């Protein structure tokens, strides 16, 4: 009698699933919106650009893993990260079954100095509108995270505003408008934008004005957390 027990064993054998995390760090600046990428310095992917990402250890939470991976590969720490989405296409990593949890954040890129380490040869900022072809599905992860970032800026008044940790403590309304225009990649009419600010009772006018400027000094504003907490809840 013919033994059929081994038929299909190689093709049908289940692959062990790994879990990883990938971090989309957006950088705000006067020159536009950037995203931080690393250059891989090891394996067959050497020289390719990718998101800072790596596997999750069995004894750590997902949030802990994202913080660790970002620090190990770029040197960045104390960066608040938010989960964006889980990416689990079966063939997203050739030859392996890897599910990744994408995280995202936005920072003022002038506040950090990336220092690549571990298996990252370099860490650099790329314009969000000019991203090269990355490894695996990292381009799609960035696209999703950018959509998430923009939706949060447009619609979320309950959460801490994105600009709170990016702009200086005191800022002009023109600086706030510039932040919106850079992140959303669109221009706003000054008058209409100022009307939108009426929806933000936590945006507080101060008695401080700009100094050392060649034009008429503009009034400075600030974010008031206590007012926001009352408004949001």
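Q: What amino acid sequence fits the structure above?
A:
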């Amino acid at each position: 009698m013919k033994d059929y027990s081994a038929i299909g064993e190689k093709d049908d054998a289940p692959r062990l699933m790994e879990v990883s995390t990938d971090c989309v760090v957006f950088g705000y600046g006067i020159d536009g919106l950037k995203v931080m990428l690393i250059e891989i310095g090891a394996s067959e992917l050497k020289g390719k650009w990718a998101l800072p990402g790596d596997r999750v250890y069995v004894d750590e939470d997902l949030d802990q893993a994202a913080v660790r991976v970002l620090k190990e590969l770029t040197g960045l720490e104390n960066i608040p990260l938010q989960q964006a989405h889980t990416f689990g296409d079966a063939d997203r990593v050739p030859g392996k079954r890897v599910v990744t949890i994408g995280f995202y954040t936005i920072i003022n890129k002038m506040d950090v100095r990336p220092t690549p380490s571990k298996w990252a040869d370099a860490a650099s900022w790329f314009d969000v509108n000019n991203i090269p072809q990355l490894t695996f599905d990292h381009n799609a992860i960035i696209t999703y995270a950018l959509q998430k970032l923009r939706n949060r800026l447009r619609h979320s008044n309950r959460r801490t505003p994105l600009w709170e940790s990016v702009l200086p403590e005191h800022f002009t309304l023109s600086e706030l408008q510039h932040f919106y225009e850079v992140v959303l990649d669109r221009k706003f009419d000054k008058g209409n934008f100022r009307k939108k600010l009426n929806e933000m009772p936590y945006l507080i006018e101060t008695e401080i004005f700009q100094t050392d400027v060649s034009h008429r000094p503009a009034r400075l504003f600030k974010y008031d957390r206590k007012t926001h907490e009352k408004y949001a809840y």
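Q: And what stands out in the fold?
A: Helices lie at 9-12, 62-74, 138-155, 173-184, 190-196, 225-232.
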